[in-house]
Amino acid sequence: MLKEFQEFISKGNVMDLAVGVIIGAAFGKIVDSLVNDIIMPIVGAIFGGLDFNNYFLGLSSAVNATSLVDAKKQGAVFAYGSFITVALNFTILAFIIFLMVKAVNNMRKRLEREKPAAPAAPPPADVALLTEIRDLLAKR
Length: 140
What we know:
Blueprint: H1 2-10, H2 12-46, E1 57-58, H3 68-74, E2 77-78, H4 80-114, H5 125-139
Helix pairs in contact: 2-4
């Protein structure tokens, strides 16, 4: 079982997947910062200083705070503003991944068009011999 595990781990696919997960997590943090620090403040400024993270509904009468952090300390809250932010993060991330995949596919197509055609494979030995015999007979 240990040998099978070593073979599984040493395959390139597992290592590629691990690298992809690590890069994906880092990329997710970049997109999260892009949305929270750049896009959401602009959206908030356009819509009159709105901050989606502080949109919530208190689920008990004890919740009367104006910020989400304070409201969570007072009781259960329905934080739909945080959901809007996460949904926006996902949409932006999906669009960026779409653009990256599209660029890679275009590059692959371009490389296939530019690749020189492979030389024709030589005919099998028996066909080459028959062709040579035909040519010799044609010279007589």
